[in-house]
Amino acid sequence: MFARFPVIPNMPYCVYRHVCLLPFIMLFSAFSSADTEIQVSISESDIKQFQVLVDIPRFTRTTGKQLGNLPNMKFDLIIASDGRAIPTNRGLQVTQNKYWDILVEPGRWQLRKKKVSIVLPIALVGKDENCTHQGMIIIENNTASYQIATETCQYFQFNALGSTKIKITTKDTNNSPSVITAYVNEINNRLPEKSMDKLSEDYPHLDPMIFSQLDYIQPSSMTAFGTVLRGTHYVSDCPTRAAAFPDCSHMPLPSYSLAKSIIGGIGLMRLEALQPGVKNLLVKDLVPECSAWGAITLQHLLNNTTGRYGSSRPNSDENKHLLSFMNKTSAEAKTKHVCNRYKVKKQPGEQWVYHTTDFWLLGVAMQNFWREKHGEDADFYNDVLIPLWHRLGLSPLLDQPHRQQGQPLTGWGLTLLRSDIAKLASALSSKESVFTQQLDHSMFSKAMQVDPSDRGAVAGSKSLRFKHGFWAWNAAPSLGCAKEKWLPFMSGYGGISVVLLPDGDVYYYLSDGGVFRFAEVLQHLNKTHSIC
Which residue in 97, 237, 426, 428 could disulfide with 71, CB within 3.0 to 4.6 Å? Predict the structure, then answer.
């Protein structure tokens, strides 16, 4: 679909696989084999090449090549003696740049004759958005070369190649041991990983190509896919339009509406376990701007059944009105907008209409509730959800949700690694996990379709349901099951699906071609791993 983009000049292919020594080097006057902490300051990007591939909102009409520049930033980096380069602070780094925030993930370095070369995965993330443009930065001498040549973003796609000025200073904070230990623990807590190429060796009747969905999803649109089978995580590679990504396990991936399930769904189910009855609190009592919202509860927000909407046609309200909400530049403006956007059409609980705005309001209500209980400095996400992520051993990326003026972007604001998706999804679909122990049992059983008494609201078609922030699909007709088989799944904008299969198994893919499809993969899996 897209022409292949040039790689960074003079960069041998092996740099991306960390096999050979790089010609890009940086001299430290006092560098030894011991772990060292440095601070890297990046400024004054010089864009060499900027190629726009897709620009539906026409961003570049007024910005030109500016969107190809890296934001100015600083980050601390542990240069570990074993060849790893580990940022001391992971997750989204909010910058002063008008367009981009940024993530820097762990990479590698090599030393020869006191000369160092560092390769790090990076990602540009749109301000208050979730579109993620992945790339790499190579630190050398007094400059750093960078390249962006892939993304998970349906409406804006580009290639960028450039350089920046850098300043490097050594630090003496004694952070190295704790940072390295935390990183080692993170890697050790991942599910065992194997390449998708090994899938047919372990399961001769399974074809890895089926999992890529080549018949339906263009390779240029696929960022990553994988499956968890019997506790092993089988992973795809992560091709780009240039050279190979430095480390697919550290490619930052956007959640989009997976956050509705992860923050909204898990969040309210955890709150209900901690404070029984919170799901039935009235929105108007927690969000003053919604004083006219009558009998609508937090549970109605979570289920998209407030009864306030413009049209009940699938995605009609999202397509017409979401942009005006997203363009509000403050948390207060967003909340006022949501409270006044739609008129009452049905009684609460009677009609499902998909609204990202409901999840924004749910996040505001949960934050307000938590602060009423624990003080103005309390934070719902930090206090309620992060302990669950730590119990699961997820990456630090989930410790920093995307926020607007401190308010988590509940409906679309997370960045994850593929290991996070696999671990979190497998725990959701397991019979025993931190979620079965820590979430409200009744709510969680219904969300995971374990309790057949309430499958959820009909969500666009008879075969789809929506319950407590999770979708469900009746797979029985496709799989030939003797009775109904409702499978919970998470879904994200542009073509992201995470399907929760029995006993901790998972199938997922992240793409940006607008395709939501997984029936054929499940039919294939069902031959060896009974789903019915």
Answer: 97
Contact by Cβ (8 Å): 120, 130: no
Closest to 382 in 3D by CA, of 392, 371, 372: 371
| Position 359 pLDDT exceeds 80 | yes
Q: Measure the CA–CA gap between 37 and 81, rounded to whole angstroms.
A: 11
Looking at the chain, how many residues does it have? 532
CB–CB of 168/38 below 8 Å?
A: yes
Contacts with 244 (C-beta within 8 Å, 6 or more apart), sequence order: 13, 16, 17, 237, 238
Q: Give domain limits for the chain.
A: 13-188, 258-525
Whole-angstrom distance, CA of residue 155 vs CA of residue 165 = 30
CATH superfamily of 258-525: DD-peptidase/beta-lactamase superfamily (3.40.710.10)
Residue 129, C-beta contacts closer than 8 angstroms, at least 6 positions apart: 326, 412
**Cα gap 340→342, rounded to integer Å:** 6
Task: Name the residue type at position 531.
Answer: I
Q: What is the pLDDT of residue 3?
A: 45
Of the chain, the end-to-end C-alpha distance in Å amounts to 37
Backbone angles phi, psi at 129, to 5 degrees: -125, -175
Within its chain, how far is the Cα of 269 from the centroid?
A: 20
Q: Rounded distance, CA 283 to CA 296, Å?
A: 6
Residue 18 has pLDDT above 60, yes or no: no
Q: Residue 503 corresponds to which amino acid?
A: D
Q: What angle do CA 525, 217, 463 make, to 5 degrees?
A: 60
Percent of the chain with pLDDT over 90: 87
Q: Quick check: 5 and 161 in contact, CB under 8 A?
A: yes
**Chain mean position to CA 416:** 4
